[in-house]
Amino acid sequence: MKIINISNRLPISLQKDNKPAIKISSGGLVSAVQSLSGSKSALHWVGVADFTIDEWLSICPSYSGDFILHPVFIDENLYKLYYNGFSNSVLWPLFHYFPSFVEYKKNEFEAYLGVNRLLAHKIKDIIEPDDIVWIHDYHMIPLVTYLRDLFPEIKIGFFLHVPFPSYELIRILPKNCRDILAGSLLGADLIGFHTYDYVQHFVTTVQMITGIQHKNFKLNYNGRKIHIDAFPISIDFEKFNNAYNKPEVFAERTKIKKLYAGKKILFSVDRLDYTKGIKYRLQGYAHFLENNPGWMEKIVFILIAVPSRDNIAKYEERKEIIEKLIAHINGKYGNYRWAPIVYQYGSVNFDQLSGLYTSCDVALISPIRDGMNLVAKEFIASRQDKRGVLLLSDMTGAAKELTESLLFNPLDEEEICIKITHALKMTDQEQEIRMDRMQKQIKRNNVFNWSNNFIEKMKSISHNSSTPIDFDETGRRSMLNKYTQAEKCLIILDYDGTIKPLQPSPEMAAPDDQLYELLAELTHNTKNTVCIISGRDKKTLETWFNNTKATLVAEHGIFAKTDRWNKLVIDNVPWKAEVQKIMNKFSENCANTFVEEKSASLCWHYRMAAPEASLAQSRELINLLSDFLISSNANILDGHKVVEVKPVQASKGNALKMLFDFQQYDCCICIGDDKTDEDMFEVINECGGYTIKVSEGHTFAKHRFNDVPEVLSFLHELSEINQ
Ligand code: ADQ
To answer: What number is the average pLDDT over the span 529-540?
Structure first.
């Protein structure tokens, strides 16, 4: 088994001077993946080359690192459109809640898909059936589905390093673009995010775009279960903690402390990116200086910004804004002896970074949005002396874990000013207590646990990629044989769309004489138990099937009738009147839609309405109801052209479990067409029965019939056996 790691860039750089060599990068992700070599799996890494083929060929024979590297060479112009274009001028700003910075261009989206296709083509040659593929980040979303199409059986994991935003942001994208993005990730077996709020945003987005509902953060798609979970990334705690005593770091710290003797040091380091909130950070600091003249010349703010994506206009603009602001603050509050801000536009090496982390009094980290933010964790880990205060934006993923930091809203300069004052006054004892707690947290959940947890979870996922099979003649014969030999047979039939074609309105779908005759023949055979299981209300089923000897299940499992009607779940529905009001409003606003009231549930039907507008309205309705029903016992079903609200315990699967002892039947056949039939398919699959989905669509059923006539013709065949 190999682990194939795929990210935009390879974990190396080529040293091209007089002694050419391959240098392994020192980032956390690289060491995290490197640590997986303990699991005896060969480690492969695929990424886009930032060197030429000739350079690679001349250097690679001398390389003997932990990873087997697979550079993908991409035309420079295509790469620009993919990387600077769609990846960083659409997905990056959008995922970080900067919709006004989004610049969508169709050709850039096509280039994005093109590069992903090229990567899939490259990887095709190295994948073997039991490999684990781990894809990283927003640049590589379509790759998930391209690989799934090529390899239905391999295990694919995807991890997003940036936030996954609310659906409200995703819906800004052109329809085909957002459909491709949401649909692509469904090729994965495991999708990881830093935090649970990103997980929630993702499952909502999938439901809004594809209609697929999650169950405990698992999605059923094309016969596969997709697991979605939070895996907060971290750092190599020991590396940063041990650096405190390194002679080079000690020397750096001494230098810095001497340089700023008698002053408190505020420190920040980040890539120069508009998401990092550097402008507001500076404004907050200026506000502090304005309101605390006593601190003049007694404080300094060391601000390090690493050049990043500087050929994208928005980044260039940001640099200018920040540099002007620094000059303005230094000019306004500083003097010839003292500059309130010391600014470096450029990288620092590890020892310098550790020197800065361990000599400052306050780390001021203020992204407007950040998937995680590793700088915060690095600062905490570095403080072997357990001194220093972390001021952290509550818009970072890290804020969910580092709750002993001083959290603040990064856009609120007043709050930044208050928190700086608080930090400067914090006693040594309090600093120590807070540091200690946060260090324990980072030590426990370090980056090695992160990669290990992800890969272990991947290994534990049993991969079942079976897609339903249309019945060919042999399959059909074998099922009929099984039925013929059975002494007791359970036949479970959904109604609408299964034994009766879907009609524009519910009352038009009454059974006809042929259907009554068919049911009579089936129930007449004493070896058969026939169950009609439907979302219909019990009154309708009673009227239609009063004279039929079938077990009836109404309202998706709330009521069942054997000799008389029983309630299978408590139908306490205090939300019903309010939900009805909401649904009525939607019916008024959206022509040709209507509300159907059942005893314990409500449906908003939009089958007869204009497709696009009514679909949009159905998304609005689900969104609204999800919030409205948040702490109630109600469940929202996003059905085929219907939104239904019902008690949470009501499901067809539960009803079948309550009504039948499956052990008693030596043949069990279950046929349905709708999403509400999926949980009964799961139940019947478990007891080894036949599950059959009618028409297209993702399903747990093992087999498929194309349409209602095919179901009826099959049932006719059954009815003629053993008569
Ligand atoms: P980034 O946006 O790059 O990462 P971050 O998590 O803070 O943000 O990581 C930055 C890394 O670069 C840190 O290891 C830091 O030490 C280093 N660094 C920053 N400035 C530096 C400088 N001037 N010199 C040298 N090194 C510097 C993306 C997401 C984050 C997510 C990470 C990991 O945007 O939200 O935490 O991936 O998943």
So the answer is: 94
